[in-house]
Structure formats: C-alpha cells, structure tokens
Amino acid sequence: MRDALAKTGRPIYYSLCSWGTDSVWEWGNTTGNSWRTTNDIRNEWVSVVSNYKINDQHPESAGPGAWNDPDMLEVGNGGLTLAEERSHFALWAFAKAPLIIGCDLNTVSKDSLAILKNKNLIAINQDLLGK
After folding, report:
1. Residue of 1, 14, 36, 67 with fewest CB within 10 Å of its CB?
2. 45-55 and 82-94 are packed helices; what angle lies between their axes, rounded to 10 degrees?
3. CB 36 within 8 A of CB 16
4. Is the pTM here over 0.90, yes or no?
5. CATH of the structural domain 2-125, one choice from 2.70.150.10, 3.30.479.20, 3.30.365.10, 3.20.20.70
C-alpha cells in the first residue's frame, strides 16, 4: 500500500493501525507516516493516561514524517473535565502524536474548541525537527 500511494505522486498521509500489536514501532516508520501504538482510546481520563504511557514506550521510533499514534483526541466529547481536556491535548502535543480531532465540530463547546486551536501547543506538536 505504501508503494501504491507513493506512485500517485501526491502527498498522502498513510496511517497504520494494528492497535499497538505486531511490534509496529519496529517497522512502522519505514511503511507509514503514523502507527497506532495502543488499543482504542475511551472518553475517560484513565484511558487517556494509559494510552499516553503505552505510546511513550518507543519514542526512538518516531521522527519527522513518522509518528507514534496513541489514538484520536477525546477533547470535546464530554467525558473529561476541562482541565483533563487541556492536559490531554498537551500530552498529545508533547508526544508529537497526530492531533486527530475525535469530536463533532458542529457541537463542540467554545472552551473545548479553544483547546483544539491552541497555537502554542500546535507549534510544539508540529516542530519540524520532532523535538
């Protein structure tokens, strides 16, 4: 699939998902742009923390163009406090995780949307050197 996507000549982000199995951290960076390192996230703080800790086990695999993915953001889905949403977004930004929005942008609260639009944390996440 990687080779077929490359042959299109268009920039395509290729996200792999085997839910953190198959030692994907050992080969994902030669195959895709990101790879799931965890099971599916749940809309509760304990799940956010668990996925972050599991994702943090193989930072050496990630770098510019290829990233560990602890699953989508739960910001705006109503299961986290505002402080937990802020922390969740910051953890994903610091981990250079893909910032995949998992809420309905048509109904998200202004506070949650402000977290998702935090330019300083997005800049940290998008650092070209991946540091």
Report:
1. 1
2. 10
3. yes
4. yes
5. 3.20.20.70
